[in-house]
Task: inverse folding
């Protein structure tokens, strides 16, 4: 029985919960309405011959710098970079100026984002010692992705580093809490290990043990508080092994940067442009992350998109700020790993779609299934191309992967049945809406 649809994606390899299928997808009212063959007519038909249609990819960690630091990035430019790279939804971090740590500041970001951001979005609430008792209400604001704790100082002024304050934060609320796990006391004690003008000393200062101490501490505190946590941008194999022993309470993220770059090459070649927190570590660390990724321990991939201007990054270490852009290169970098046999496409989908849905309790996202949002990342797995600055949309106008030759690229970003990007061309209007969560929809 044929039907009428708003959109049909035809002739592609569609990745449904049942696996890869040569089927068409019919869209009506912004949602998947049918999956099959000979579906009927549509107002818009997209020929996906030779392409793979993936569930919309979700980047669960970006820093878009608005308000207060818009010279680096803003919600419009950062989300434009996201959809140019194939991202359909993202979670933005609270270390802005001012910090996103009150209800008023959350609502301000949501207002700024509405139909100005190109993709769907949610915002983290920053935990502080002062707002700890209020977090149980702040985390329930629709459009919030939960609470973020900085255990170690990074860009911005959010820091909660003592056990008493951490315990009060964990005791306030029920949603999964995102953690930047580096131990502030150890890093303060090791500051003299930074070498002026030598960014390769960055991982010596912020060493493995700084990460491991924080990860052990926060898991112990979370277990005492009976609170689920999510440890961001894990950089050491030892942490992943330990998290693997505590999966009942802890999920975790790895980044494309830490899976792709190694200190031995990155710091001599890129200098301060390779500087981020936690640091790019050795090739042995990178290989260890891949081992545990293929053991199934990491739950999601996030870009930790953290842009700074070229002028800021050009300052001599350690005056240079930590962070690099990555939202636009998340998908192509990982597709290149798929092409090279390090990663299966099924695992990629789990880390960028169904994983975020499971970890954070998203409503209507994360899979191609009837009734779900019609979010698709359409990719050409065989496309060989070179990253260049003309393609980059971030306001910071640089990438550590500029000049890299890759195989695999997102050619289309479709959000709730709207073709937002196709073959590097952007739509006329931004249509981003807040992501919905089970915890705020049905509490």
Result:
């Amino acid at each position: 029985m044929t039907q009428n649809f708003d959109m049909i994606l035809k002739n592609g390899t569609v990745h449904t919960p049942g696996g890869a299928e040569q089927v068409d997808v019919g869209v009506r009212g912004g949602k998947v309405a049918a999956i099959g063959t000979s579906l009927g007519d549509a107002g818009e038909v997209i020929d996906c011959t030779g392409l793979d249609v993936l569930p919309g990819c979700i980047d669960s960690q970006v820093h878009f710098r608005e308000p207060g630091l818009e010279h680096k990035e803003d919600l419009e430019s950062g989300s434009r970079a996201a959809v140019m790279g194939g991202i359909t939804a993202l979670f933005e971090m609270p270390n802005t100026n001012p910090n996103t740590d009150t209800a008023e500041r959350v609502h301000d970001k949501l207002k700024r984002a509405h139909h100005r951001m190109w993709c769907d979005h949610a915002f983290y609430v920053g935990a502080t010692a002062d707002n700890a008792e209020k977090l149980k209400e702040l985390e329930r604001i629709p459009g919030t992705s939960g609470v973020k704790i900085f255990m170690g100082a990074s860009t911005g002024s959010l820091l909660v580093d003592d056990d008493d304050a951490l315990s009060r934060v964990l005791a306030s609320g029920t949603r999964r809490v995102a953690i930047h796990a580096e131990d502030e006391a150890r890093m303060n004690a090791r500051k003299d290990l930074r070498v002026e003008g030598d960014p390769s000393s960055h991982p010596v200062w912020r060493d493995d043990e700084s990460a491991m101490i924080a990860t052990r501490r926060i898991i112990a505190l979370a277990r005492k508080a009976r609170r689920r946590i999510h440890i961001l941008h894990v950089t050491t194999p030892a942490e992943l092994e330990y998290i693997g022993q505590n999966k009942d309470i802890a999920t975790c993220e790895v980044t494309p940067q830490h899976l792709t770059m190694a200190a031995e090459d990155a710091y001599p070649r890129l200098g301060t442009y390779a500087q981020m927190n936690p640091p790019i570590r050795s090739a042995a660390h990178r290989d260890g992350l891949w081992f545990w990724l293929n053991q199934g321990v990491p739950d999601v991939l996030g870009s930790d998109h953290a842009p700074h201007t070229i002028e800021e990054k050009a300052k001599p270490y350690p005056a240079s700020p930590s962070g690099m852009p990555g939202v636009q290169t998340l998908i192509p970098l990982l597709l290149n790993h798929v092409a090279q046999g390090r990663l299966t496409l099924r695992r990629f989908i789990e880390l960028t779609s169904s994983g975020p849905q499971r970890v954070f309790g998203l409503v209507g996202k994360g899979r191609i299934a009837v009734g779900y949002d019609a979010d698709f990342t359409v990719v050409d797995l065989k496309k060989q191309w070179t990253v260049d600055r003309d393609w980059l949309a971030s306001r910071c106008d640089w990438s550590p992967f500029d000049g890299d030759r890759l195989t695999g690229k997102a050619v289309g970003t479709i959000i709730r049945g709207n073709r937002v990007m196709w073959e590097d061309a952007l739509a006329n209007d931004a249509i981003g809406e807040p992501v919905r969560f089970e915890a705020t929809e049905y509490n």
Observations:
- The first helix runs from residue 75 to 84.
- Residues 176 and 228 are 5 Å apart (CA to CA).
- The radius of gyration is 21 Å.
- The mean pLDDT is 97.
